[in-house]
Write a structure and sequence with these properties.
Layout (H helix, E strand, L loop, with lengths): L2 H11 L6 H6 L1 H7 L4 E5 L2 E6 L2 E6 L5 H17 L12 E3 L2 E7 L10 H11 L19 H8 L5 H19 L8 E3 L8 E4 L2 E4 L6 E3 L2 H13 L4 H11 L9 H17 L6 H16 L10
Antiparallel strand pairs: 1-2, 2-3, 3-5, 4-5, 6-9, 7-8
Helix pairs in contact: 5-9, 6-10, 7-10, 8-10, 10-11
């Protein structure tokens, strides 16, 4: 799904249609009142800002259960008082085979989020018990690898796809056998500053798709990998660990979860390769660094 297709689906929902008064007036006045849908992100979902709403269009129907769970999570987090995005509609729509969820738009950010903003939110999430109304899944970090490689198709080298499948098959049992340092339970699953919005009332979580119940170390390995692979300032990482109260790199299982996440990150990029040459180049860079066993090669967004 590219941006053009996502906009077609958005138009079908009517959420970006003209207001009734403008529709009756017609002509230039109607066009002037039509909300402009601004693309905020394009990944497994296309995320649009539409007036006072944010609309997420899922890549395919396989993501519908996850969309349903995300809305249930938003309601649960509201009950527990965790600052997070709030849904504008309680159930997802299925539009032309794509799940669509609708959210209240947050106020403008007062500054960019930093790792230290994430730590207090994670501490609160990691203190939560299991939700009573619905089960959280395990953190299937490697669960999407096959689908992402399938979506990549012939755009990537079959040998690279086979290499990632072999890594997945090696890391999955190793991760399942880890002894945690923290008490397992609810976790965010993709704990990065990009998933925090710092508004007038403080930091708010903005992405709930990967919420799960598993080793809470998953949340902490994300930033450790960001420090080593994506150029996160070590001082910013130190501020995060100080605010959280523990550095996951002290844990014996860190290397296993890091390797699993690197494998998943490579496969995730692969799904964009058929339509994005920059994604293909970044995929090839990442796979080459894993083949060479070079943990110092810098990875980049695309």
């Amino acid at each position: 799904m590219d941006e053009a297709r996502a906009r077609e689906i958005l138009a079908t929902t009517g959420l970006s249609a003209r207001e009734p008064a403008a529709r009756e007036a017609g002509g230039r006045e109607a066009a002037a009142r039509e909300p402009a849908a601004r693309l905020l992100a394009l990944g497994e979902n296309a995320v649009f800002a539409v007036g006072e709403l944010v609309v997420k269009v899922g890549r395919d129907a396989e993501l519908l259960p996850r969309a349903e769970r995300e809305l249930a999570l938003a309601a649960w987090l509201a009950e527990t008082g965790i600052p997070a995005v709030r849904a504008a509609e309680p159930e997802p729509r299925l539009v032309d085979g794509h799940p669509v969820t609708v959210w209240h738009r947050l106020p403008e950010a007062v500054r960019p989020a930093e790792p230290r903003d994430l730590a207090p939110l994670l501490r609160r999430i990691h203190a939560l018990p299991e939700p009573a109304g619905f089960p959280l899944p395990r953190r299937e970090l490697l669960g999407g690898v096959e689908r992402w490689l399938r979506l990549a198709g012939d755009a990537i080298d079959p040998a690279d796809a086979a290499f990632l499948r072999d890594r997945r098959d090696a890391f999955a049992p190793a991760a399942a056998a880890l002894t945690p340092h923290l008490t397992p339970g609810p976790l965010h699953g993709d704990a990065l500053p990009r998933n925090v919005h710092v508004g007038p009332d403080g930091p708010v979580l903005v992405d709930l798709e990967t919420f799960s119940s598993d080793l809470r170390e998953h949340d902490l390995v994300v930033l450790a990998l960001s420090r080593d692979r994506y150029g996160l300032d070590p001082a910013a990482y130190d501020a995060f660990t100080e605010a959280y109260g523990w550095d996951v790199r002290e844990w014996d299982g860190c290397a296993v979860l890091r390797g699993a996440r690197e494998t998943a990150s490579c496969a995730w990029v692969a799904q964009h390769a058929p339509t994005n040459p920059k994604a293909l180049a970044e995929f090839e860079r990442r796979v080459a660094s894993l083949r060479q066993g070079d943990a110092t090669v810098r990875w980049y967004p695309f």
